[in-house]
Amino acid sequence: MKSPILILVVGLAATAMSCGNKGSVNTSSNTATNTPATTNSPAANTNSGSSTSSTSSSNAPITVTGKWEMVGKEGDWKGTVDMVGMDGFLWSVESDGSLFKTDPATGTFTQVGDKGSFAKLKHLEAMDHLLWTVEGDTLYKSDPATGKWERSGEGGGWGKTVAMAGLNGILYSIEPDGSLWKTDKSGNDTLVDKGDFKGCTDLAAVDGKLWTIENGNLYWTDPTNLKWAQIGKEGEFNNISVMISGSGFLWMLDNSGTMYRVDPNGTSTVVGDRGSYGTTTVLTTLNGKLWTVEGGSLYKTS
Question: What domains can you pick out in the chain, each with its CATH number?
């Protein structure tokens, strides 16, 4: 267990996915106390799911007003297993491994590449105009604009990866033994930390830091020096089922279907009505909006 300097912030009514213990030296940080502020609207149905994007349009500022609408035809997204926002489009992978590009203005989608090209998909990340995927035990990078793809590094070694996130042109990943790795765009892997993230199931990048949920606690870590701090109270995030990042915030969905927006200081806001995201299966951000697949349909919330 960490014995850190706590940043006591929000009394987030949510709790979170478990991750392992850190044994490193802590950093100091400011303390603030807040209570969640509820906005006046949900995103239509419900949610769960997904991927973190670190590319321009996915990080446009999001102002949650509670206004939502279905995009495209009802049920068109029932086969979607993962989705990220990048360069003004939504990029999604279906259960058969096919990649699609969707125009967020109309919901019109187009298949990219051959059908089933991503059949062994385990993780999907958008970084620096490329799609990074773990398929089987190998990391790949694909340029969706040209359809070109290549294996990153020598191949293999990624089969047990539990989470990954892009930050400042570097892909960070966590292994089941708690090791934190960084991979550059040429496929060179470097061990950053051995074992301090054991048990981690979710990883996101915001404000130049890596964010993890570990044993129901939220932490940030500076990957350049491994300084870290705990955010919020002990066990406050035990009930979180999904955590992604986008537009400078963490977006968390709890087991009751309640969505939270958490800023880098730990201040949280309930998005919409509590429980209103209960059927969500995929979640991402793009063009200043929150995008969800709920009940097999695509919704945007602004």
Answer: 38-210+240-259+271-301 (2.120.10.30)
